[in-house]
Amino acid sequence: MRNKIVAGNWKMNLDHQQGVSLFSEIVNMVKDEVIGHQQVVICSPFIHLHSIAQLAKGTPGVAVGAQNIYFEEAGAYTGEISAAQVKSTGATHVILGHSERRAYFGEDDYVLSKKVDAALKHGLIPIFCIGETREERESGRYFEVINEQLKKGIFHLSNEAFENVVLAYEPVWAIGTGLTASPEQAQEVHAFIRNTLAEQYNQDLADGTTILYGGSCNPKNAPDLFSQPDIDGGLIGGASLKSRDFVDIVKVFN
Ligand code: PEP
């Protein structure tokens, strides 16, 4: 059975105190809700990681992740943070390939492939994001785009390494826009991703890979999205900043 994950992406929001308060609230509300193969992962700004990882200790199924790392080990890279540094906070995951990093910070597939390697080397689970822009969807090229992102960003991994990866399909046109992919549109792409994994690796690996949906996911649309056979949870942006909404999304699996 595949792991079901609801991950929150807080983006560049919340000061330290606000982050600790929100995380405490979420932990209190979900501690009896996270069951079986389910996991909740909060991906916060770096400043919160150590404090919230401490708070997560002792709550099974609740984990903490970063939203970026740099691929070098250490050294003169002013302003950057390495995988080992993130790991030392107690975080276990890192979002890589988010469309905001690709668009605003120029992260290309090559840089992302190096970040994936650095994360795995230091025992962080990459939540690797892929997805097409509105133009790419409208032109019908979305399978091609997603295939390229997988091929160049992550298909250099061995079978063994890939088992520690989580994927997130995030259509760029649905992120922060209030537009959500319909359950059918999302399922179509998730099934395509799983078939592509089976072709590149094997059916067992494809069947075991957790693939999240992200893009204006909320408590109303999550039940239909998460009931699709190839959707294993969500990467939640805006709604992860409201404890009630986020926890209602977590509870969809109960
Ligand atoms: C995201 O940024 O990963 C995301 C899915 O954002 P939102 O839920 O706000 O669309």
TrEMBL record:
Main location group: cytoplasm
Enzyme Commission (EC) number: 5.3.1.1
Superkingdom, natural source: Bacteria
Gene Ontology CC: cytosol
HAMAP family linked to this entry: TIM_B
Subunit note: Homodimer.
Uppermost EC category: isomerase
Gene Ontology terms, MF aspect: triose-phosphate isomerase activity
Recorded metabolic or biological pathway in which this protein acts: Carbohydrate degradation; glycolysis; D-glyceraldehyde 3-phosphate from glycerone phosphate: step 1/1; Carbohydrate biosynthesis; gluconeogenesis
Organism: Parapedobacter indicus
PROSITE patterns recorded: TIM_1, TIM_2
Keyword Isomerase: yes
Function: Involved in the gluconeogenesis. Catalyzes stereospecifically the conversion of dihydroxyacetone phosphate (DHAP) to D-glyceraldehyde-3-phosphate (G3P).
Catalytic reactions of this protein: D-glyceraldehyde 3-phosphate = dihydroxyacetone phosphate
Record keywords: Cytoplasm, Gluconeogenesis, Glycolysis, Isomerase
Cell location: Cytoplasm
Pfam families reported in the protein's UniProt record: TIM
Active site residues of this protein: 98 (electrophile), 170 (proton acceptor)
GO biological process: one example: glycolytic process
Binding site for substrate: 9-11, 176, 216, 237-238
Protein's recorded name: Triosephosphate isomerase
Family membership noted in the UniProt record: Belongs to the triosephosphate isomerase family.
